[in-house]
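Bug #77: duplicate submission created two jobs. Keeping one. Sequence:
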Amino acid sequence: MIALAVLGWMIACASPPTPIAGHLLPCPSSNNCVCSEADPADTEHAIPPLAPPAGHAMPNDALARVRGVIASMPRATIVGGGVVDLRATFESRIFGFTDDVVLRADYAKRVVHVRSASRRGYGDMGVNRARVEELRRGWDATFPTPAEPAAPR
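Kept job's structure:
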C-alpha cells in the first residue's frame, strides 16, 4: 500500500500539471511562473496567449505546430497531451532544474493558452517568461509571411 502511494506521488511529481476543467492551473504566489489565463492585472504572472498573427486564422493543427516548436527548443521533452492540451518539460542547462509547460488550445477564442512554471524555488530570473516569448516567436514563424505588395511601375 505504501509502495502504491509512493509510486503515485512520483508520477504526480514527474509530469506537468494538466488543465483542469478547461483552464490551466493558476500560478502560485512565487514569481517563477507565467500563465496566459492569469488575471491581466497580475503583471508578475500574466502573459498573452499564443494567437495567430494578423491576417491568419486559428489553424486546426495549432498544437501540432506548437509541438514542433517545442521539439526544436534546447533541453525540451514533450511528455504528453491530448486533443486540446500539450505538456512538456524543460531542464535548465547548469543545475538541471525542471520547468513544466502546459498548453491548452481554445479554438472558440482562437488562442493557445500557455503556462510555464518552475517546479522548485521562488524566483526564476525571468526564465519562464523568456521561454514563452521564445515559443511565441517559433509559433509566429509557422505561419507564412504575407506577400510583399508589388512595387509600382
